[in-house]
Amino acid sequence: MAAQPFGAPAPRRRLTVEPAPPLSGLRVVDLSTWIGGAYCTKLLADGGAEVIKVESSEGDPLRRWSASGAGIGPHDDGALFNFLHASKESVVVDAGNDDQRASLQALLATSDVVVWSRGSPVAEHPAMAPRQIRSDHPHLTVTSITPFGLEGPWHDRAATEFTLQAWSGGIVGLARGRPDREPVYVGGQIGEWLAGLFAAIGTLAAGWRGDPGGDVVDVSMLEALGACLTYYPVTFNDQMGRPMRKKRFVPTPGVGAASDGLVGLGVGTGQQWLDFCAMVEHPEWGEDPKLFLDRTALAPTIDEWIGRHTVEEVLDLTSAFRIPNAPIVNGENATTFEHFRGRGTFAPNPKDGAVNPGPPYRLGAASLRPAAPAPRLGEHTVEAVLRRRSPRPPRARPQRSGALPFEGLRVLDMTAFWAGPLTGHVLALLGAEVIHLESANRPDGVRLVGGVPQSEEQYWERGPIFAALNTNKKSLTLDLRNPKGNELLREFVKTCDVVIENYTPRVLDQLGVDYETLRGERPDLVMVRMPGFGLDGPWRDQAAFAFVIEDASGLTWLTGHPDLLPFEPYTVGDPNAGLHALFGLLLALQHRRRTGEGGLVEASMVDAALNVAAEQVIEHSAYGALLTRRGNRGPLAAPQNLYRVAKPDENARDDSWVAIAVATDEQWRSLRAAVGEPAWAADAELDSMAGRVRARDQIDARLADWCRDKQADEVVSRLADAGVPVAVVTQPHHQPELPPFQSRGFFEEVKHPVIGNSRYSTLPIKFGRGPERWHTRHAPLLGEHNRELLGQLGLTSDDIDALAAEGIIGESLVSGA
């Protein structure tokens, strides 16, 4: 991209040499610290971007980090740092030195992108504030990652991953956990990884416009968690008049202890429940409809059945019955599974040899950059970087614009449920024309999520999750099992730039509409396939619901109480997969822009999950440490926990909580003052993190007593004002009541012709150049755009009527579907 803006198209030509990685020529300056910014720039570097990491003389604290507390040698860097910073360069800058700061400004002047977060002396210097950088260098895309966004009433409030999960609704999420225990957060710093992923997507989207101007891409980690750890709770509550769940529960079946390890089983459909009942030799359970909705009483019998079998026996049997299943993967056993070994899922880090997960997608025609060793602190210099660069030509300051990046891009969305539709939904929100393909006898299953009775008129149009996931899209129905429908699909693909699908691999093969076939209709087509476990390997045809992907990646292993079996997060496996698939697609589209060549993107859900759970495999490989769940405690703060407060919850239960996390010694002193300098907190041993870790039980007991007779708002007010990270454990459907969501306009009201008005979430990204509003149209009615879209193929009104009469297209659900 040295000679043109990121989005500028190149003439299409046939390749004669191995292409450069898609982002070759993109120059990125990384002013961030910790995981979020590092993952954003890792995704860019893997795509071919030149990433210069700017550090102070102390270096990024991630260089000294081990989640298990492993000792890191004075001349070594942490294994997680080496994974996240492969293929980058490191320069050291003293931001207080005028000459060095001028050199940094020169580096920015010759770059395209800056990724920024708080936490380093360089980033905290006033001259390096995101909007100041943008003012000084209008051509730059400046991507920031902060807890609550760059502006707004809480922009400078102290926060940690843990307190942000509490505010977001993600701790109670889909009510994970036992009702007799406190709720529990999702382990593994998932918010950092998700925020970094959104930042990478926002960075490429801002550069896709093709004009010479940059932008400010403002990512909120709170909103990223709200989007990915909850399941559209506000729209659900608005439309259904109730939250999705009122009390915590443990899925049955769910995580179970076999004779030699842990397995995860799940039932997502009525047929799967009947098959499960037959498998465990209790077909009579399937005759009681109440048990499909609440199977808690069956847990002891199911647990006993699982315990009589080995992990391999359970997996083989449930696979034979086509019931979703996976082993519970952790840092120790991940590399032992035949599926991952056969696919080459893991590889040694080029610097330290620790086991790392491979890229979360496979690009086919385009190539990713092979990982090079992460840099030593200050291994490179600004002057050396500048000597090899030509300056960027001066560019006019762009005017604020509501133009959307992907206007003119046509996408055929052959997906269902959450992960796949999310990929298309983000594109639709960013301006692409996205056509959601269903059939009248096999609609997107998420239309029926929510429990709308079939006695309701147009019940298939009343699903709140479908409504939330598909705004701005169009709907086309085709019965692909019918030869005419199949032929129409191939004709329609000729008009599309992109096809996205998330069937199990065998389905597309059976329909005869795989990539090679569709490429025959459109040679420069980019196709995204989103199998759960990949297009090859022993688990290829396994059903992949979110919880199965969480089980198979380590996300489940780290979530829950140490004295219980782990809990499945039950949400993040889907959106994480959809967002990684989107980033892989953006790389493939950039490759097409540069070369004229389309390609196949294989974005397996489990590969995406293994990347955001990478720390587990890395820690075990590098240090022999098995990371385990800690309830609501974590390695970054002490104390860190949930504490019950006085006011009953909205269901009149004694189940209201606040989250408190003390991440620094300064925050501990602030906490001590805020609670009145009690004698128990005066022990000098507690002035250090190590001392507080040793005294966690005592501190938790004291804080629990202090919080117990207070209202949540009082606790939050006293601690937040003192600079202590604190949050109310918020019910997900109350997200719009929080000031950060309000000030950033995260929710917008949309009128649906069947459902009426509801509030819909947007994206956890604010672009400085707009749009002012994300949702431009309600989710489409089934087959709503059949005539418009088929007419574009030259079909007459009579032709379309004939297709409807044959059942090849339709605008209402076929009875029994």
Salient structural properties:
single chain, Rossmann fold, seven-stranded mixed sheet, six-stranded parallel sheet
Describe this structure in words.
It is a single chain. This protein has 817 residues and is an alpha/beta fold. Among the domains are: 267-323, no CATH class; 413-612 and 777-805, Crotonobetainyl-coa:carnitine coa-transferase, domain 1 (Rossmann fold, 3-Layer(aba) Sandwich); 638-724, formyl-coa transferase, domain 3 (2-Layer Sandwich). The protein has 31 helices and 23 strands. The strands form six sheets. The chain has a seven-stranded mixed beta sheet, sandwiched between helices. The two termini are 49 Å apart.
Give the oligomer, counting copies of the same chain as homo and different chains as hetero. single chain
By CATH, the topology of the domain at 413-612 and 777-805 is Rossmann fold
User: What is the CATH class designation of the domain at 413-612 and 777-805?
Assistant: Alpha Beta
Uncertain parts: 1-16
